[in-house]
């Protein structure tokens, strides 16, 4: 990888902000692990805030979003490298930013959600610019409990629907057909694989054994007879 030049980086305030986030002065491997963990935590936080429905937590997503957007520059500062790998990091950063809004919440429901039969007991209208955005309060059939409001679909009171529900109630339920492996999930998977490739190359660059310099080769002297 070609050396990364800080003179070509964005304004110094931004660079200083990123360097603060990447544990300056610590071993390179620790800086890589810490910054990648910070990016993963930011990705999950943004996804959970949007899955939860926003609210007051929307005020806190500014910094996580900034971390995701600045992933390429931050990783380049950590590795002190640029070159072709920087293009990969830009693609990874954009993919993580785009998928952060939907994939983490869906992934949580896929891993920990429970499939439940429910019936619509109330339609709730949230007015915005003269139009209604409908959400639905559900009741589980039998002894099942469904916490949270279903925000997608066109339903009426009394309709039965199968949902994937979060047992803790933190993330609202979603229709079972909406929680499936889709294009954005694939984009997120490729992005994290790209991040792993960048990390592997970074560790390889750090721990690559240095080649011992070869002694200079000198041409043999020609002795002249007197």
Automatic annotation (TrEMBL):
It comes from Actinocorallia aurantiaca. It comes from the Bacteria. Keywords: Membrane, Transmembrane, Transmembrane helix. The keyword Transmembrane helix applies. This is DUF3592 domain-containing protein. The chain crosses the membrane at residues 29-50, 56-79, 86-103. The keyword Transmembrane applies. The lineage of its organism: Bacteria, Bacillati, Actinomycetota, Actinomycetes, Streptosporangiales.
